[in-house]
Queue: 3 jobs
Job 1
Amino acid sequence: MKNAIGVVVTAGLAIGVCAPAKAQNLEGTLKKVKETGTITIGHRDSSIPLSYLDDKLQPIGFSIELCKHVVEAVKAKLAMPNLSVKYNPVTSATRLPLVANGTVDIECGSTANMTSRQAQVGFSYTFFVPQFKWITRTNNDIKTADDLRGKTVAVTAGTNTALFVNKLNNDGKLGMTIMQARITPNHSCWSRPAAPARGWKMTS
């Protein structure tokens, strides 16, 4: 399953930056940014390599670099070279609500562009297409979804992977125990084996 990832923005910011408009016609997010003198960036803390914290706990990553370019475009459009930039941490569960309610003006992370999400927020052009993998112990002979029958699987809460695994479990009547974690380090889906073993393997 491949997912198109783009920067998450409010509709006003996405449209406003791309299309020229007179200052007096500003509305939505651009108007808010103009009036407050601040643009707030939502970031993740461990979505490597797109959005994570460095050793000084500062947001870095590919998505963050792209958002910095967006900020420069906003500064130029609003003629506000000294526009203040603030960072606000978000999680997979809070990122969309915080963009939708205006707490953050743009989310720079690893959010997949899905039709259902487009009803809540706007997306940038796709710049990253990942594919999730199942992670399991090397002594497990797990090659298909049916091999996960009755096993415990951990997924990151609030992600499209969690939705996919739940649907897979229900449709296939697999009887999996699905654990919703806040984050799984650098991976979307884990499978716990029936017996301990050394090493891990990845399977699509």
Note: The mean pLDDT is 79.
Job 2
Amino acid sequence: MALLVAAGAQAAPLRPQARPEALAAGHDSEAEALASLVTDTTRGTTPVVPPAPLMPDAQALAPPDEPTTGPETNLPLPRYVSLKGDNANVRRGPSLSHRIDWVFTRAGMPLMITAEYGNWRRVVDREGLGGWVHYSLLSGARTVIVDQDMEPLYSRPDAAAPVNALLESGVIARIDRCERDWCRISSGGYRGWAPKSALWGVGAEEVLD
């Protein structure tokens, strides 16, 4: 039986980092990168700065009380996604003009989308921290965070099955499939089954093939 090294010991922390001072001073590489995405037809013309989008109301910012669908994608809300890269600015509102409050630095970490507005998604992490990120910074690849320390990774979805590895709290694993109460996950070269109750990043009733 193998022990999987804790995520925090080998990668960036799960908790988002506070806004760097460089961003507070106005050096925003994300804004510059997105601003560079213009078409050839707009090059050489007088730039037009669009007005900042209206903020959604407070109810739209909070996770919906009941499952619903997103106004931009028609996908379920809330729903889980993962962080595509290792540097994602988390803003106070859905536009580049809004303040950056956090920076997510852990590629692959699962996030819950709770609201949509244009090309922006309001996300929340396992600790309830988050804000608005551009949709291009998110991935549909499904991952989970191990919530229980020394969680057994079973060879089949049965607590009496042989144990392939022990997962430390904070390990990020990719979802292979999920049944009603169990998910088969993989991380660090190990694969096996873990109960949903020990994972964050998958719905209690979610079934994934």
Note: Residues 5-11, 35-61 have pLDDT under 50 and may be disordered.
Job 3
Amino acid sequence: MYTCFLSTCGGFINFHVPDLELTTSWDNITRICKYELYRELKHLKSNFNLINRNIKYLTIGMDFFNDPYNLKAPHVELVAVYDIKKHKIVHITGKSHPVAFQKQNLITASIESHFMREGNRRVLILGCHDLNMFSRRAYSNNIPHGRVRRYMNRLQQLSKKYRIKTIIQHPHSTESARTWLIGWAGVKKLLRPEHYVGTGKYYAHGSKQRSDLDRVLSSTKYGNVMDIVVSRDKQKNKFHVNFRA
């Protein structure tokens, strides 16, 4: 029997944390995360009864910014896993693989934190670009004995050790069917997973459409996955929800 997850995109909730510094300890970051997320979720508890009773966990992308208007300021991209029935945060991880502009200002999570214990198995919880640590192209583009290559090796070694079969990625946006293609190809070759999914906003920030939505959805999932597509009618200020198996 499989455990059901309901997952949001990366940066689903953003917080301004003016005291956040590159030297802020991970313990303090998780403490802030729990405080802020519990404050948000207490307003939603009445809606949890509407969620399918088979869904056990909600995974939530959360971004903390020292200065939300300055991406060069210290920031951290987190993923919290919330047990819906117990009303409890049971796991916290974060982005470990920064993009170029983040290398000096992103507070990174440990590789070990990506492996969530669920019963007698582990589930791999990834931040936005963490999936690229399985990409052959990204691997070859990094210095053999550098920090990034070490992180990649560690993630792949632990994934094989724990025999990972379920992977959940939390990108901020996915506008093309090719965006994560190489990363997921690396996952399939190394781990032969039973299920994986990548979330994300589609057609975001007023950009031009790069791929048909159906192609994007099919390229970011495998196994027993249902897509929940939320769209907004700006003129009527209403949201529409579609379920796609």
Note: The first helix runs from residue 26 to 41.
